[in-house]
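Example (one chain per record):
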Amino acid sequence: MKHFILIILIIFSTNSNSQINNIAEKLGYDKDAKLLIIHGDDIGVSHSVNIASFEGFKNNAITSGSIMVPSPWVKEVAQFHKNYPNYDLGLHLTLTAEWKNYKWNGVMSSNEISSLLNEENEFYDNTNEVNLKADPEEVRKEIQAQIDYSKLIGLNPTHIDTHMGSLAVNKNLWKAYIEVGHKNKLVSMVTKTRSLNLFDEDFPMPDYIVPVNDIYMLYPGADREFIESAVGENVANTLLVKDIYKYDDWYNLYSDKIKSLNPGLNVFLLHLGYDNEELKGVTIEHPEYGARWRQLDFEVFNSDEIKELLIEEGIKLVNWGEIRDIVYPN
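Predicted structure:
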């Protein structure tokens, strides 16, 4: 995972929650309620990720998830949604294909989004090239096409977010992301951190945006030096897992974060999957966010211990669909 996404998620953490308190009350909670969306990323990318995410929904381990529409297993998600329409699903708008041997391109015809594709007619494997090469109008067409295709195959998305932060690499792509979401009456996931450097006087944050107060995910130990330089050693220690991935490390970091959540809207970004041969093949030579990583996210949030802790700490579990119904009531 590239350093850009780390910057987006970590730097300039803020505890301001005036807008969030308003959302809490509109959702029927006290203004100082600790709201949490437990969000499953990358649904549709593989069969392993799909079935783990489906189990996560059924076991109340996650409250929302987002789908990578251009990826190979998206129609399996559409069938799941047909069978279980009440689970909250959005779109993980995708402009990159980061795995070594497992690739995809856009929903639009290649000749219409040529600035988004490499010489092999695939999405770039990193966000730097998206930043340097992507034509904002082609991006706008592609993300609209991903929304349209999701509905064509029977999905009913409630929200959008951005895979690897590729739509947050510059202000032009960010504006397309926000405007396309609003046009389609979908909540755009926005963190308070992003509001600091991507909205400005030329494009101020619209009043239909509900920014996330605190977004949390785990990062590999290999990124320690970078993260420490961004947020300091103490905060870095709350985000980083050791190089040998163990259940206890995962559980301790997540449980400590649950205990320290502030009032407002919080999001945990999980990457669910099973540590099986399929997912090992997809994520070959990439243990970060790989098969073992995703298995541990799955195990921790399907555990009785985490579920009990959420109750003990008075955490109110919510989803993007509930927020969408407030922002876009009709």
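Caption: The chain has one domain: 3-327.
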